[in-house]
Amino acid sequence: DTGVSQDPRHKITKRGQNVTFRCDPISEHNRLYWYRQTLGQGPEFLTYFQNEAQLEKSRLLSDRFSAERPKGSFSTLEIQRTEQGDSAMYLCASSLAAGANEKLFFGSGTQLSVL
Amino acid sequence: DQQVKQNSPSLSVQEGRISILNCDYTNSMFDYFLWYKKYPAEGPTFLISISSIKDKNEDGRFTVFLNKSAKHLSLHIVPSQPGDSAVYFCAARGFTGGGNKLTFGTGTQLKVEL
User: Fold this and answer.
1) A42, A91, A97 member nearest B106 (Cβ)
2) Per-residue pLDDT reduced to its tens digit, B19-70
3) CA atoms in the 13 A half-sphere facing the CB of B79
4) Of residues A40, A97, A108, nearest to B43 (C-beta)
5) Pairing of strands B108-113, B10-14
6) In terms of CA atoms, which chain A residue is nearest residue B88?
7) Residue B96 burial by CB count (10 A; 0-12/13-18/19+): exposed, middle or buried?
8) Closest Cα in chain A, distance from residue B81 (Å)
9) CB–CB of B23/B34 below 8 Å?
10) How close B65 comes to chain A (CA, Å)?
11) Which of B51, B101, B106 sits opposite A40 (nearest CB)?
12) CB environment B2-27: b (16+ within 10 A), e (fewer)
């Protein structure tokens, strides 16, 4: 399977704990995106990387959130001191930058539940 | 501030008939529109897209129409099949010179009945 892979699929944590998610994009893709989806809403942009450079961050991304893509391949999203409002599906997507026709390929997501 | 709106949370259609999913947007800077389909426990999958310089794009059973003056787009599925039952998200992009930051609507749950 050469699609976008996310790990873990599900994470249950207690409020105040730190969590880290991993995303492995499609191998030749140079762009990697993180989105968050809550119940009844569409995915919301959080941040994106081109290769290892983080080029844009949403104002949704508080300072408790940090994302890295150290070698321009896989990426991690860490949430420190989790809050119940962080409960959501965290989606990763990758693409090969191609101008107007750029298409995002999404992983299956990590479902986070903060108790 | 919901820049992309899908006002119908659900739609039920009989197999073989046409499904029409609607989407409205408010930001005139959006230059590219996409539809994604999402099955339970899976990520969204790209379906079809349209540039703002066009008013129609067709791919097999799927056609997207864009009415820029009304800031409205629609997805037509003909004929509808049971496997089309999924949540459909409309998304829009405002090109800012880098990245493909998409703004999604809230989705429409399509159910195609036998």
Assistant:
1) A42
2) 999 999 998 889 899 999 999 888 999 999 999 999 999 999 999 999 999 9
3) 8
4) A108
5) parallel
6) A42
7) exposed
8) 23
9) no
10) 17
11) B106
12) eebebeeeebebeeeeebbbbbbbee
Complete DSSP assignment for chain B? --SEE---SEEEEETTS-EEEEEEE--TT--EEEEEEE-TTS--EEEEEEETT-SEEEETTEEEEEETTTTEEEEEESS--GGG-EEEEEEEE---SS---EEE---EEEEEE-
Give residue for tokens 């992983």: A107
Amino acid residing at B108: T
Look up tokens 């492995």; give the residue: A24
* Closest CA–CA distance from residue A59 to any residue of chain B (Å): 13
Strands A65-68 and A53-57: unpaired
- Compute and round to an integer the Cα radius of gyration of chain A: 13
Q: Which residues on chain A are in Cβ contact (under 8 Å) with B98?
A: 50, 55-56
Given a contact cutoff of 8 angstroms between Cβ atoms, the answer to whether A49 and A32 are in contact is: yes
Q: Which of A51, A4, A103, A57 is nearest to B100 (CA)?
A: A103
3-class SS shares of chain A: helix, strand, coil, % to 5: 5, 50, 45
Q: Do B31 and A31 touch (CB under 8 A)?
A: no
pLDDT in tens, A44-91: 999 999 999 998 888 888 899 999 999 889 999 999 999 999 999 999
